[in-house]
Amino acid sequence: NYLLYPKLQKVVLACAIFFGGTIGGLMLSGAQSLSSFYIGFLATSFLTYFFLPKILKWKVSWNFK
Q: Where are the transmembrane segments (predicted)?
């Protein structure tokens, strides 16, 4: 497990996907059109949904001595 509270894993992933999608939608739309926001939101959410669990499972070693 990669979370401090494993029971909250689904909630954390859902929130991360939602906020990642929102940021992606805002970056793509640039406050110009609603359709480009939705396209960016869906594309970023889709990518986050597939890659976030894989990224969170990576073990990070800082190698401090």
A: 12-31, 37-56
